[in-house]
Task: structure prediction
Amino acid sequence: MLYTQDRSEQRKFLANAWQKFLDKKILDPLEDQLTQVIELHPEYHQLINNTESDYFPEQGEVNPFLHINLHLSLREQLSINQPTGINKYYQTILNKVQDPHKAEHLMMDCIAQMIFSSQKNNTPMDHQTYIHCLKSQANT
Result:
């Protein structure tokens, strides 16, 4: 398992996991989770090996590495039901949209908003705003 703040190392780990998957090699549990998410995103399959690229959201670009890691973060939260009650929001959103992948994307928007706000304002992540966003997604 790889836990690092180093962008290059994270991206290489992801690219290596994808290559191992393509080569039908045995994956460790984290690699398996990563490749499951990558499989859901064929638009990223060719981008995964380009670990040095920059992506600019203000130009409409989606960072595939960030996107994949947001999926993993959400799935980790769901696996431990943290923040408390997140599984309830997931189930409500899933019942509404009838698509697990789409439900994850709606919830990931809330995570991304929390991270963006924290970085923009140079403040700690506001978990109450995150929960409020999840409630809003569940109720709309």
About this structure: The mean pLDDT is 91.
